[in-house]
Design a protein that fits this description.
By secondary structure, this protein is mainly beta. Helices cover 5% and strands 38% of the residues. It has one helix at 26-33, and strands at 3-4, 37-41, 48-49, 65-69, 72-81, 95-102, 108-114, 127-135, 140-147. The strands form 2 sheets. Strands 1, 5, 6, 7, 8 and 9 form a 6-stranded mixed sheet that branches. The protein is globular.
Length: 148
């Protein structure tokens, strides 16, 4: 199963992730707090989708269900980021951003950070597992990735 992050990977000072004012992604963020990865699946046509939407991308039915999935996938694409995208990241580069494909979840893809040495070799197709990074104050959680 997925591991727990022993220390926080991201520095303090970044805005914390929150659900949109309409609450669309609230189940996703609540799931991360419980070390669970939730992805939407249409109860009518069984299509998986991510990011969250109020309607199914395929059949346009409203309110897709949130389903727990195994936080495992493979690297679909990646980028080594050298320039900080936020002032809090000024002394924290480089880092690796990955696009992870979840083959067992209809091939949905999600963006995250790849843990470990930021100069490591990254291989497209490498297997990765999710690592839940919990922050206590204010409470929120992130999903990071590490090579299996």
């Amino acid at each position: 199963m997925s591991g727990k992050a022993s220390a926080t990977y991201l520095p303090n000072g970044l805005p914390i992730p929150v659900a949109e004012p309409d609450g669309l992604s609230a189940p996703y963020w609540a799931g991360l707090r419980q070390s669970r990865l939730l992805v939407q699946r249409c109860r009518y046509c069984q299509t998986w989708q991510f990011g969250p939407e109020w309607i199914c991308h395929r059949c346009h039915a409203f309110d897709p269900d949130w389903t727990e999935v195994e936080p495992r996938g493979r690297i679909y694409s990646w980028e080594r980021v050298w320039h900080p995208s936020h002032i809090a990241l000024t002394q924290h580069g480089p880092y690796i951003a990955v696009l992870v494909e979840l083959p067992h979840v209809g091939g949905v893809r999600m963006v995250g950070n790849l843990l470990g040495d930021p100069t490591q070799e990254v291989v497209i197709g490498a297997d990765v597992e999710g690592v839940f990074e919990h922050h206590p104050d204010p409470p929120y959680s992130l999903l990071q990735w590490r090579v299996v």
